[in-house]
Amino acid sequence: MKPEELLQQLQQTPDFLKLSLANPDFLPFASYSLPNGTEIEIWDTGVIYCQPQQCGEQDIVLSSGVHGNETAPVELCSELLNDVLTGTLLLTERVLFLFGNPPAINAGVREIQDNLNRLFSGYHSKEPGVTSAERERAKKLEAYVLQFFQAAPEGLRERKLYDLHTAIRGSRFEKFVVYPFLHGADWSKQQFEFLKACGANTVLLMQTPASTFSYFAAQSCKAHGFTIELGKARPFGQNDMSRFAEAASALRALISGGELQTTEFNEADFNLYEVRRSINKNTESFKLHFADNIENFTTFEVGTVLASDEGVEYKVEVEGEAIIFPNPKVAIGQRAMLMVKPVSVAGKVS
Ligand SMILES: O=C(O)CCC(=O)N[C@@H](CCC(=O)O)C(=O)O
Ligand SMILES: [Zn+2]
């Protein structure tokens, strides 16, 4: 498709997600201005940059569809973006909207070949000679995000990346956040307050580096980066969008200078967890010993066998240890479940 054709289509029907899904592998660079002065640049399929006439002090990446079957965040972001494109929502901040994996969104699957959210911080290129659409995409997404942050106006600015997901299974706490490892730096009070305004007051504090998008944002871009789990993954058309209203309105306020419904950080308002251990799938024999309807953050009695792999059984080791993200279908060598435990952040937030 030629840039002129793309612009014509977008101006006729301001639905960038639709355009991206109709062209899942490529869209040419194109730019135009809205009547309200907002500059719009299409950088690629699923990648669109919006710059208000007067830039605020935040640079915000809103990402969804890194896993193709997690449709609610895609719908939520598409609605925000379409409101920007039609002039219904006037931005005050620079925003980069990313729909992570358009081919996987079209196919309604988590990934086509590789889990995109295990390929950041250079993991896309760690195996010489191995390529896939997701590896290429991870490399490009890294470059777009860096370009976005680096091209910001001079001055003291706040970088943010919210990577929106939904989880495979239900959760004792419907909405929760993965806060990437900060290498000993304090966790951000202001960000806890914002996450709570999104309806997510359960936060998993990571203790090690990861190959996820949010860790890349935190570590390589020095942004406040988060994976936000907004609920359970369902196909398009089956999401009850009222369950995402709080997150949608907090994000809308964030990018348009609206009033955020935050309350001062108080640890007692949060369920805080840290990772005790990561259980990886080492062979094709890996299996879980509990049912698919067992929710994230469920605890079991000490000694309960939770999973097994060739020659090994994984049991609950301590009181209060809970499961998150159990998934026996991951590739060999990848994390198949996290074991987490409640923790306090006292003295480590500022
Ligand atoms: O429900 C599941 O098992 C997976 C949901 C999901 O995609 N979670 C993210 C978390 C990323 C992180 O650890 O920051 C993922 O597994 O990629
Ligand atoms: Zn996901």
UniProtKB/TrEMBL annotation:
InterPro entries: AspA/AstE_fam, AstE_AspA_cat, Aste_AspA_hybrid_dom, SuccinylGlu_desuccinylase. Belongs to the AspA/AstE family. Succinylglutamate desuccinylase subfamily. CDD domains: M14_ASTE. Binds 1 zinc ion per subunit. Its cofactor is Zn(2+). It comes from the Bacteria. GO terms for biological process: L-arginine catabolic process to L-glutamate; L-arginine catabolic process to succinate. Pathway: Amino-acid degradation; L-arginine degradation via AST pathway; L-glutamate and succinate from L-arginine: step 5/5. Residues 269-342 form the AstE/AspA barrel-sandwich hybrid domain. Transforms N(2)-succinylglutamate into succinate and glutamate. It holds the Pfam family AstE_AspA_hybrid. Zn(2+) binds at H67, E70, H165. GO terms for molecular function: hydrolase activity, acting on ester bonds; succinylglutamate desuccinylase activity; zinc ion binding. This is Succinylglutamate desuccinylase. Gene3D superfamilies: Zn peptidases. Keywords: Arginine metabolism, Hydrolase, Metal-binding, Zinc. The gene is astE. Residues 58-255 form the Succinylglutamate desuccinylase/Aspartoacylase catalytic domain. Its EC number is 3.5.1.96. The active site is at E229. It catalyses: N-succinyl-L-glutamate + H2O = L-glutamate + succinate.
